[in-house]
DNA sequence: CCCTGATTCGC
DNA sequence: GCGAATCAGG
């Protein structure tokens, strides 16, 4: 399988939706998990919460790969000049998608949030409510960061539709639309007893449920793919 | 063990 | 550019 534009598009979409590389590979079919990861990196889609990334240790381990077929090692031994052992080598692994401030201001000082001595925080908005008793002497939590708050938008458009909070064991959880879109909601029908979906969507969900590794040509799954609606 | 993503490097 | 092999954390 080759990476057609469409497949790349699907990969991007799924990757950004948080699907794991295995799921994506399985969904696309014809590619391995490694292929997905490799492609994602080549595409520049980088670093989502990864299990192994927190460490800063220089991983200089000449792994012996391809033990066979190569009589001599053609690679010239790279004289890795161990430059700065203690300095933070790489840029921070996964910087949140917030605006990066000018790095020239402070080299590295995240420890001090500079709390106002006199200011007393009594509460923060609905998103991060916090209290402080009369005897409290210090603000244990830094003031509400100037984060860009995403307003919870209960769009009237979905007022009568089934939202995430409306889901129970009895109603169909089949997603309608795409997450993040204003009209994203769930089916909401009465479920097929014993299944998370209604009868109709059970048909969609389980029809092409073939054993792992089996190619699935183009099943009308609710995620990924071009947005045809 | 399973899973995950990251990285390397022969092709 | 691709992806198997490998690494490494959970």
From TrEMBL:
Location of region: Disordered: 39-159, 209-229
Pfam families the record matches: GcrA
Extent of Low complexity compositional bias: 72-90
InterPro entries: GcrA (IPR011681)
Protein name: GcrA cell cycle regulator
